[in-house]
């Protein structure tokens, strides 16, 4: 099939590349000229494991191309995907200007039947709004489909190639048939495609993200309680996770959920509910708890240093909002850095992939190191904000010689408690026994 993808961010580029991988002809459009030029020159603009191999293969075989020319992309495409930003607007609700603006631009270019697929996360009723934009500007027949994306950054290629499910919201049989054909190669193992109406499909996406954010937040509260009552959250996590009704995944406590989606989507759903005079109380509690959880590590630190960290220097492992990505949107590490600086401390950080993105926004407010050991030089303590695999089994002998204070505040519970006692560390993690000197 001939496909156009509008927007080449984490979702658009993965979608375009993975659709090309099953033989489709995909043209990707972006308004960011520098980014498009990079891709034309053969460079993947984001760090996403496994993407580069597929990207280069499909370009080489002529199935994947990039342009800034929307007209060129729309001309031949049977299906047009919109993978555009839906950031929080001034009032916190999803800003639909990218989607509705692109819909208007596309509507002026269509001359034959097209399926317009919305992959972005959008409030209920957006498909109707997009349909209305087309009606206003063209008489050409089009169908608008809601097809939310459930991929996770860091494993995006796998998630797209083997999705747990595909959700397609449309009342059009014609569009449904085309979408079923397009997705058939991705559901060969029997994972379902759910066809539903547009509104249910749009809400499914917000419900999924909000449920997962709630699950994490629940565990963060259990972790906080564990510390108070002297229980161990790792044991509790295993104890409840083995019940199939609860499930093992997304039960890891830490320093709050971050990323470009959970924070904005939970907020957008709560605000959308408010707009319909429905007080979505759980989501409001989730947001409040998550806000506090982001500074839990700094609170521990301040307690340890009796409220005074002025002049202290801290090493930070991890900047990305999660491992295996260079994405720092709403990364808990950024909140930690902010709090440390506000309290008069200095920070040196190391992250395997996200340092350039942080440099671009923080400049020289903090310093950066070449590796996870150099960053420990002159540090009063080490803070851990992201659970990159490379941090899980460090060379403690080497660490001991640099981090002479042997003090670690770990927001991701990387190390075994007994091991840290044996190694003689002060090791303060989340929801587990506090280790004192
Ligand atoms: N990042 C993720 O893991 C996931 C994101 N989503 C949703 O997908 C949507 C996109 O998210 P991301 O890919 O993370 O965004 P992103 O910010 O990484 O990428 C958006 C891209 O769209 C481009 N763009 C903006 N306006 C344009 C226009 N008029 N024409 C062409 N290109 C334009 C930007 O230059 C940028 O490259 C959002 O609604 C998000 O909530 C859904 C699932 C996963
Ligand atoms: O809509 C989206 O953008 C995507 O949002 C999340 O994916 P993503 O943000 O890439 O990352 P997750 O792995 O879900 O992690 C989100 C945050 O929750 C935190 N988290 C996750 C799991 C856990 O057990 N504990 C925990 O604190 C992570 O550290 C991270 O800050 C969803 O998992 C995807 O299904 C969805 O498509």
TrEMBL record:
Active-site annotation: 261
Keyword list, A-Z: NAD, Oxidoreductase
Broadest EC class assigned to this enzyme: oxidoreductase
Biological processes per GO annotation: polysaccharide biosynthetic process; UDP-glucuronate biosynthetic process
SUPFAM superfamilies membership: 6-phosphogluconate dehydrogenase C-terminal domain-like (SSF48179), NAD(P)-binding Rossmann-fold domains (SSF51735), UDP-glucose/GDP-mannose dehydrogenase C-terminal domain (SSF52413)
Classification via Pfam families: UDPG_MGDP_dh, UDPG_MGDP_dh_C, UDPG_MGDP_dh_N
Entry EC number(s): 1.1.1.22
Protein residues bound to NAD(+): 30, 35, 86, 121, 153, 264, 329
Pathway the protein contributes to: Nucleotide-sugar biosynthesis; UDP-alpha-D-glucuronate biosynthesis; UDP-alpha-D-glucuronate from UDP-alpha-D-glucose: step 1/1
Keyword NAD: yes
NCBIfam families: NDP-sugDHase
Family: Belongs to the UDP-glucose/GDP-mannose dehydrogenase family.
Protein name: UDP-glucose 6-dehydrogenase
Organism: Pedobacter polaris
